[in-house]
Amino acid sequence: MDGFGIPVTGVPFVAFAPSSIVQHRTADWIAIRADNIEGVRHEAFEFVLKATSHHLLIANERAEWYDGESFVDGLSQSRVRVWNRKMAFVPAGSQYYGWKKPRALPRSTFLHLDPRSSLLQSELRFAEIEFRPRFCFFDRDLWETALKLKAQVENSARNQSAYVEALSIALAYELMRMNDSVSPLVSRIRGGLPNWQQKKLTQYIDEHLAEDISLSSLAELARLSPYHFSHAFKQSFGVPPHRYLTCRRIERAKSLLANRKLSVTEIGLDVGFSETSSFTSAFHKVTGETPTDYRRSVA
Predict the structure, then answer these.
(1) Which residue from 60, 97, 117, 216 has the least number of CB within 10 angstroms?
(2) ω before 7 within 30° of 0 (cis)?
(3) How far apart are CA 131 and CA 158, in angstroms?
(4) Residue 69 to residue 71: CA distance in whole angstroms
(5) Cα–Cα distance between 279 and 264 in angstroms, integer?
């Protein structure tokens, strides 16, 4: 146990004392561990980053304090009282801790990025970059990507891997840009995919629509890094991989909806949606109709 009464593990997270001062919603993905926290009581608390092997990006939607202090290696102590729509970045290997007395119940997202993840290494060389710590800043592109990842923590749909991996790469790239670490190799966008790769990918996708297809698995098929693959795929198909996957699922669903022996729920499962609500939402976003309305129109 550490000083917070928490078992010592290698899992990165920000611990609070008392622990009941916040509620957590977490998700573990290939390159990022996300933790959405929301305060539940107006009571002073302490916090400390446990396990410093990952970079930590904090996006504060609501953060107002009567008093408090934040400390991170490499920066002066911060006593800023209002952090609404502000961010902080703690590089791997740095200590981060402090205490707060909240004026408003905090709502924040903690994104722990693994610099050694294969998703970020092959072309971004993420682990080789020396990042600088930052407090109380705002970057629109970084903020929007962080909130998209926050939303995926709440999304229970099982077909989100490709989208989350694409967002993870985008987040890493935005951090590199902010840190002035974007190399010519990374910033140069190359050509699209040759015909043999396009054919192989479309065939694989159509044969595995019911599965949670990851960006990494598609990149491996094309024998490219995930970063290079994402750009090349969009140049070839006109849309990012996750959007293409969704469109193919909806097209398959359209053909299945003509068979009235299958329920909408069954069709959703057949094309990779674990919940009817997520299937209906995706179908409506692409077609402007619900599955049921579409079925009536083709009767």
Answers:
(1) 97
(2) no
(3) 33
(4) 7
(5) 9
Model confidence at 299, in pLDDT bands (50, 70, 90)? Answer: low
Amino acid at 87: M
> What is the distance between the alpha carbons of residues 174 and 135, in angstroms, rounded to a whole number?
16
Q: Which residue has the tokens 């070839």?
A: 236
Tens-place pLDDT, residues 239-298:
889 989 999 999 999 989 988 889 999 999 999 888 899 899 989 988 889 999 989 887
Angstrom distance (rounded) from CA 255 to CA 89: 47
Contact 244, 205 (CB under 8 A): yes
SS3 57: strand
Q: Could you tell me the two tokens for 231?
A: 């750009």
Structure tokens at 247: 């469109």
In the block, residue with structure tokens 């729920």: 265
- 298 beta partners: none
- Per DSSP, 64 falls in state B
Task: Calculate the CA 257 to chain-centre distance.
Answer: 32
pTM exceeds cut of 0.85: no
Half-sphere exposure (CA, 13 Å, Cβ side) for 176? 23
Q: What sign does the CA torsion over 239, 244, 246, 250 have?
A: positive
Taking the C-alpha atoms of residue 198 and residue 154, their distance in angstroms, rounded to an integer, is: 33
